[in-house]
Amino acid sequence: MDDFDIGSRLRAMRTAGNLSQRQLAEQAGVPHAQISNIEKNKISPSISTLRKVLGGMGVSMADFFEPEREDNPGPFFGRDELIDLTSRVAINAGAPESGLLVLRQIGDARLHNLQILHEVYEPGADTGETMLQHASSEGGYVVEGELALTVGDEMRILKAGEAYLFDSRQPHRFQNLSDTRTIVVSACTPPYL
């Protein structure tokens, strides 16, 4: 980890997302100078500061420190070429009896600034009582089953053939309250996971 250049990595991810330093600072809620100083390696950010800055781009700590993958550049992807992101979300914390949730990504989300997911919610699957919230927009289509979606103070059970689209800065939660599997195809930009 000694050879990891935080400043260069942050600059590369910021420019790939077509963000200026000022735009990232605004989205992350940090001073503009802080972004500049991190990118020039003048300061070494605390973990909480780095998490805040990465949150402004919708990038997780794991994704930031993960070495570059040699993913299939597309345009076509086989079933076995989807990237499993399940471990990147703290799901069902403290609820081992809850159903399994599997998230698989199509291709390199950062390259296209678009994250497309194939999501499988087994009965009881739940993203958790702590609502998700990130600087993105997201939408999805329920392919099979039923998905209980809470956005802000509203909750609705979406059935196969129904869809959603909202500003991800609003607190939200996904659940499968039924006794059958639910399958969703969703998209998020900029990428969150």
Commentary on this structure:
By secondary structure, this protein is of the alpha+beta class. Helix content is 23%, strand content 26%. It contains 6 helices and 9 strands. The chain has helices at residues 6-16, 21-28, 32-39, 47-55, 61-65, 109-112, and strands spanning 83-84, 101-105, 115-121, 137-144, 146-151, 154-159, 163-167, 172-175, 182-189. The strands form 2 sheets. A 6-stranded antiparallel beta sheet has the order 1-2-3-9-4-7. The chain has a 3-stranded antiparallel beta sheet with strand order 6-5-8, with no helix packed on it. α2 (21-28) crosses α3 (32-39) and α2 packs across α4 (47-55). The two termini are 22 Å apart. Mean pLDDT is 85; it is low at 90-97. This is Cupin domain-containing protein. Keywords: DNA-binding. It comes from Nitratireductor rhodophyticola. Residues 10-64 form the HTH cro/C1-type domain.
Strand order of the biggest β-sheet? 1-2-3-9-4-7
Strand content is 25-35%
The oligomeric state of the chains shown is single chain
The whole-number mean of residue pLDDT values reads 85
Radius of gyration, whole Å: 18 Å
Distance between the termini: 22 Å
Roughly how much helix do the residues carry, as a percent range?
10-25%
Alpha plus pi helix count: 6
Number of strands: 9
> Mind summarizing the main beta sheet?
6 strands, antiparallel
- What global shape is seen? globular
Low-confidence stretches: 90-97
User: Order of SSEs, N→C?
Assistant: HHHHHEEHEEEEEEE
